């Protein structure tokens, strides 16, 4: 109740702030009077004569990859034959040879699955200049989720909100929604201050064509080059004026002409101990319902609270896929890369452009869809409700599927162009209905989290939901633009990084062992190559790494030979596998702009992840199955320790429990301990410090 009282006591117009006694805090700030009318339905898009995007198979990468697959397959097959034949017919120690053979079989199996990424890598480009006029673009929502103002600093969250509001997109068709599962009054107050600052910030960005529209980034040293380009007496005067407003949190000097802002909505769900709130998946589903009755945009951009928009044209770049008549009917989402800014200044623009992890995304993109990374993706809402070209299926028994909300069901019908009615402007009735949709009891006896919306069957809600979309027949695309569209901050502490990775590994292993396993369910509903990619994302490789890190060493101490002598012809097989694997890794790193040091760091980071966080993730799943642990959400600490961040930028890291700073990895390599959970072969590396 203290939170509610403090929120109600805010110096803010009563008609813009709504607070319930059940701590459902909903502030709908409608800053454009015609938003509800213009964004209530999907805009009618006429196909453009000019191409909106291109898709090109990467050569010679694809051809060389297939040739290497063939040669390496023969070498691995010979190695497996050597192991099994000696186990069956040779006089070798059964335990040590059995364990090492098991681990090598696992390595061979995972390697076979991972070759699907290399089968048809593609690169995409877009042409936003060929899009129809702004009046014909569809409406767009932006979903941002936060849960704890201590672990997710409010200033960073508001910078993300402001950068989303400043997207280069028709203002009347843009809405930004913030879900605050922490229900913190400070976050609600910060939303009010951000809205006030936006009245000056957005016109300033539009007037001078500012690209870095995150205030914190623009006023930092990261954007010195951009400010130098814009340098003029008029610009300097307005910049100083804006920075006074930003620093002092005042809104002096904003005129009526500058008040055209997107819709801004704050939501905090009702929570009760007796009702599961489903963590981030529950928050996203609540945002889907609330946004449906407020703006009902057909598309949404999902962002982590610390992942700000670095390129205002990202929305139009995504629309180059969603509005392309060639494959828009089956496209579910367009994924952009997840890139971090708090490693080193150079890594943002040139280092990330040659990162090697993108080869897997591009490889999966070539076989009808890349994995959903959880942030930085533009999603077609309709894909969460039905299969491609089967819009009517989710409208059958709508109350049973979506709950008893007439306004929500009408908004869903509007997504398909059926029974469309003009939506009313923001009103008290809409706010009250939104509170009902955000309540903890609304989803009872509905299909939310099962067949509708984000899935509740896995804590990796976005990745798992993206997998289910591909199972339904939806496709996705991946774009790696020259300028990063989204930038975030990664953990700079070894402990936080490993905890984050363990959380991801646990969720993926749990999904892989469930009834939704890509090897069983996936094979029957998607292409074999796509199913292989998803299966290779599991963390079973960590057990094989552990065996390989223990058995050979103990065997050596006890004088048990596990490998053929150099004079033995079979030694050439082991040497061939080693050199083949190493040459493949070197080629991928060098072709992406890396160095030999990059390759070496990736090898070490891969081993650290495999035998620590990924291994513990497997144990976590095991304990859940036997009832020793229950599902819980581990929120990553995004409050950056500046001292540790400085050490990382210098290429030094401090291991927990150690008083010494070790020059172990270069900065970007260390950051990769918390990067994409499914990149188990390599950690991304950029320029060494």
From TrEMBL:
Q: What is an example of a GO molecular function annotated in this UniProt entry?
A: cellulose synthase (UDP-forming) activity
Organism in which the protein naturally occurs: Sesamum calycinum
Gene Ontology annotations for the cellular component aspect, listed alphabetically:
endomembrane system; membrane
Q: Name one GO biological process term.
A: cell wall organization
User: Superkingdom of this entry's organism?
Assistant: Eukaryota
Keyword vocabulary terms for this entry: Cell wall biogenesis/degradation, Glycosyltransferase, Membrane, Transferase, Transmembrane, Transmembrane helix
Where it sits in the cell: the answer is: Endomembrane system
Where does this chain mainly localize? membrane
Q: Which residues cross the membrane?
A: 69-88, 94-114
Q: How does it sit in the membrane?
A: Multi-pass membrane protein
Q: What is this protein called?
A: Cellulose synthase-like protein G3
Residues annotated as binding Mn(2+)? 280, 304
Which Gene3D superfamilies has this protein been placed in? Spore Coat Polysaccharide Biosynthesis Protein SpsA, Chain A (3.90.550.10)
Which residues are recorded as binding UDP-alpha-D-glucose? Answer: 151-152, 181
Q: Which Pfam families match?
A: Cellulose_synt
